[in-house]
């Protein structure tokens, strides 16, 4: 594997008045977010983050990925409206162009299926109404764990919230097995993690078109 490292003048590379430049930087930020979220979801154990359980840690980063993927969808859509960028993209290999088109299509499809709603209810916000609806749908004898520490900061854990978040994922659907539904949706959203590679290709298209590398 070969790579190069160089210091850059950030504003020379990304003029703030240039909408293509701003969108590329936005995608760079989101790419790093998504990569971190993927790694945190896949790790078997992260002791410093697993005090409320490995399951909660994975749920947390998966929920954050809703927001990240929705933001990527918005940024990719913004690039589609930039003729300067599309002209540069047409000079790239067919695989790069097809990857951009496929990512655009897949993000929109999954957003319409469930991602946008989950982002609104669990990723971007924790809405009181969504919590109340989830509580109403829970079985009367549903149980969960709480660890009370008598005021010791960081030692008190609310493990029951894992069960509540599972219920919130169901939203208003008729699904009864939250974990099974979570796995189904996580497999669908996991397929979008290749967005990291497409963003790299879009970044490379940008710097080549502007001859920014020494």
Summary tags:
about 210 residues; elongated; mainly alpha; 9 helices
Description:
The protein contains nine helices and no strands. With 214 residues, the chain is mainly alpha-helical. Helix 5 crosses helix 9. The longest helix has 30 residues, at 94-123.
Biggest sheet details? none
Output the radius of gyration: 21 Å
- Helicity, in percent? 55-70%
Low-confidence stretches: none
Spatial gap, N to C terminus: 19 Å
Order of helices and strands: HHHHHHHHH
Quaternary class: single chain
Based on secondary structure, the structural category is mainly alpha
User: Number of DSSP helices?
Assistant: 9
Name the average pLDDT. Answer: 85
Strand content: under 5%
Form type: elongated
- Please count the beta strands (DSSP E, at least 2 residues each): 0
Helix-strand blueprint:
Blueprint: H1 10-13, H2 19-42, H3 54-80, H4 83-89, H5 94-123, H6 128-137, H7 160-170, H8 178-190, H9 195-209
Characterize this entry briefly:
With 214 residues, the chain is mostly helical. It has helices at 10-13, 19-42, 54-80, 83-89, 94-123, 128-137, 160-170, 178-190, 195-209. The two termini are 19 Å apart.
